[in-house]
Amino acid sequence: MKPRTREAMQALLYSIEQNLPLYAPESSICQNKCLGCPKKMMQFLEGEYEYWQQMLADEETPTLGDIQNLARSTKKIHKVLRSNGII
Fold first, then answer.
1. What 3-state class would DSSP assign to 14?
2. Which is deepest, 25, 45, 56, 79, by most CB within 10 Å?
3. d(CA 28, CA 31)
4. Per-residue pLDDT at 3 exceeds 80
5. Residue 47 and residue 41: Cα distance in Å, rounded?
6. 6-11: long-range contacts at Cβ-Cβ below 8 A with a sequence spacing of 24 or more?
7. Phi and psi dihedrals of 35, rounded to 5?
8. Cα dihedral sign for 7, 8, 14, 18?
9. Within 10 Å of residue 77's Cβ, how many Cβ atoms?
10. Residue 12: which of 54, 86, 81, 67 has the closest Cα?
11. Is residue 36 a contact partner of residue 78, using CB atoms and an 8 Å limit?
């Protein structure tokens, strides 16, 4: 059985929390070699992460499109962080 969208979003948020440096100090993200701006990307992702945490806490149900959009953004940000040597 496929997970419901709430559980899928919770799993995605948990994966983001475990695999990306959310709320890391700026000094650990900005390393003077930028392919894209990791600092701005992490600020964006932190905002999305907090937004969806709050939406789930408020009993809102995300759509499959919401999950797909967050997953796509997260994959792109992960790729940029990896290419910059942050993770």
1. helix
2. 45
3. 7
4. no
5. 10
6. 6/56, 6/61, 6/62, 8/62, 8/67, 9/52, 9/56, 9/62, 9/66, 9/67, 9/70, 10/56
7. -110, 95
8. positive
9. 20
10. 67
11. no
Task: Kindly state the tokens that stand for 25.
Answer: 């100090």
Read off the pLDDT of each residue in 51-79 and give the average, rounded to a whole number.
92
- Amino acid (one-letter) located at 47: G
pTM of the complete model: 0.81
Other beta carbons within 10 Å of 74: 19
Give residue 25's pLDDT: 67
35 pLDDT more than 90: no
Q: How far is it, in rounded angstroms, from Cα 54 to Cα 56? A: 5
